[in-house]
Amino acid sequence: MAKLRGTGMAAVNYPTGMNLGGDPSQALVHATTSGSFVVTLSATDLGQGLRTVIGQIAAETLGVAYDQVVVDTADTDTGPHDMGTFASRATHRVGNAVIAAAVEARKALLDVAAEEFEASVDEIELDGHGNLMVRGVPARSMPVAEVASMAQFKYGRTIAGRGSFMKPRSEVDPETGAMDPDSTEAHACTVAEVEVDTETGEVTVLSIRSAYEVGRQVNPALVQGQITGGAWMGMSHALYETTAPYYPAPDHSPRDFSEYLMPGPLELPEIDCVVLEMPSSNGPYGVKGIGEMTANSPIPAIVNAIYHATGVRIDSLPVTPEKILRGLDARRP
Amino acid sequence: MASTIVTFELGGREVEVLVRPMTTLQSVLRNQLGQTATKDGCRQGGCGSCTVLVDGEPMASCLLPIEDVAGRRVTTLESLTPAEGLHPVQQAFVDEYAFQCGYCTPGMVMLSKALLDHDPAPNDEAIGQALAGNLCRCTGYRPIVDAIRHASGAMSGHDTEPVR
């Protein structure tokens, strides 16, 4: 009996968005009288940070500070249409729609400022800190809030924009099988190290190290959070989680949180990653989707590491101690 | 059985509640006192999202009959949060980005506060033992462990930089 160590790797090529019957997201942007901008969406923030990155994208496009943007999400009764938060699509799809809406709203804002300054629209610029000015004439400057208020009370205008992004449905070419189902693809490679106890069959994951190519990062801390949480979730799927451990038999199925096996803080491996940025051609500011993919490559990397350590090749999840011990028994002469 | 009046201390103030027997502390906090930071994940002590402190000890408020806290000192996330700014443990959770959906966070913060009160400089093993009953689905726990180490430094007056 021994503790055997092994190293395994796996790579993933992950699509952003899905080939539905067309995959649209829409956004509305408008200024309030206080000069803040409201982005109205139906897309949902599950905790991955959609509101944060959409606020960043809107602020960047409008030319205002991040804290001047309010992102209102997830009410499908009142918001513009969205297919939803899935397929790692929201930052890409919704971000593109928000850029389109923000460009239109920005144009409406500049029109009012141009009229007030008696200048042409081309001469008006935003300083990114909440002020509009005539280019090269700092004396002719006015806070966005003042122009927004003026738009409503003096000129009777709305400062608003509509945006939509749609990936059209892609049909399969019957001759070649070719199609274009997604918008862009992110990539990752994971190397996992494990230690397997051949007496108990227990696996300890020592480290999960990954490289991710995710397009431009709108918010690196959020990307890091996805990768760290995804690595843990991948390990959890590889070694622990199942709702039917003896499927199709219902035996020993967990009934609640205290019976559903997941690793906790005492089982944490070393988790490390590097992120490469290769902007996509069609995402907002070069974005690709990162989300679901982060739990993918850790799973086969861990299973390959177990094979490397023990010679036992397991092809069903989770890799329980029982499966490893049965595999080790089968290999004994 | 008839309703009774139970008195306990909440965030430094005495509160009185009229309750049916065996009402849980969680239910009183959320439904009678409007303190909804204490979450309602499983109502069977399996997730830790309802963790509050009773006389400084972390407890699953979903399993605690309100009669058991009569005369005792209850601390919730609301009572921990200062009028302005954040408690050092809360600030460390922000600095380390130790949450995503945030559902586990109130319980994790209360647990961390109790841990640091008992052990101002816990190692990873001690942190892991303390967190073992509280579930998080988003972060992979690493940022939470880092936040506790960060808060430990901040509360002892040095090393207030984020761990990562």
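qc> Chain B touches chain A through 29 residues (CB under 8 Å).
qc> done
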